């Protein structure tokens, strides 16, 4: 099966994030972009007709409604989601950074339009005991350039909850040790769920679309007690479909035996997952509104 080189593993361990260049081939990338357009058109149509659903969020900051987030891609394009998860790079990430028992928890898409549409303030995702890995994997459908609202990280902050209010009130976007991480369309950017990160306003025209995939060992879900065993078992069934769809040479040794054959066909499983909705562990944000001359909007954008 494809291997993650040692320097990538070391970089992730030391910093809490790592980029995999060209993790998605051009054919799949094109189909994911087509899906993004279809979802955006559907959400815009429903918004225009006053249909309210929690699966998507439309931002209206500029006066022109723009899609910001579309959740649960599995519900709309299950086969395409399975194909994405079963790619060689994704299988290598699951094996090397998450381990046996890895399951997908969520697959969503974020749309980033230029300011004044939303930025992403400093935060940490899903605090947990850290006994098991917990990954947030970004699949880039468009380029994310330096100084244009790409991800900002503070390396090695993933081990504990940080004083986000104090840090951002003092430093704004420029936290001590901060780095910007660019990405190109087709790249995959993996981050520890708890790393302190943000994304300032986008300046250039056009949309940036990123698919976010949460991965965690099923033992970690059970240990956290945040979701039920039944919810976790449905994710194991989801992963069983991924293993079945993957090229056998990309499947780690022992994984087919561990996940076994799916007990329901994919569309029946999706319906079961829809019916068994359980809330995620909330992210950690600043405890109060941050007052800073260059945060969350730079002074030159005001």
UniProtKB/TrEMBL annotation:
Keywords: Dioxygenase, Oxidoreductase
Cofactor requirement: Fe(2+)
Gene3D superfamilies in alphabetical order: q2cbj1_9rhob like domain
Protein name as it appears in the record: Phytanoyl-CoA dioxygenase
Alphabetical list of PANTHER family matching this protein: ECTOINE DIOXYGENASE (PTHR20883:SF48), PHYTANOYL-COA DIOXYGENASE DOMAIN CONTAINING 1 (PTHR20883)
Pfam families reported in the protein's UniProt record: PhyH
MF terms (GO), sorted A to Z: 2-oxoglutarate-dependent dioxygenase activity; iron ion binding
SUPFAM superfamilies: Clavaminate synthase-like
InterPro entries in alphabetical order: Phytyl_CoA_dOase-like
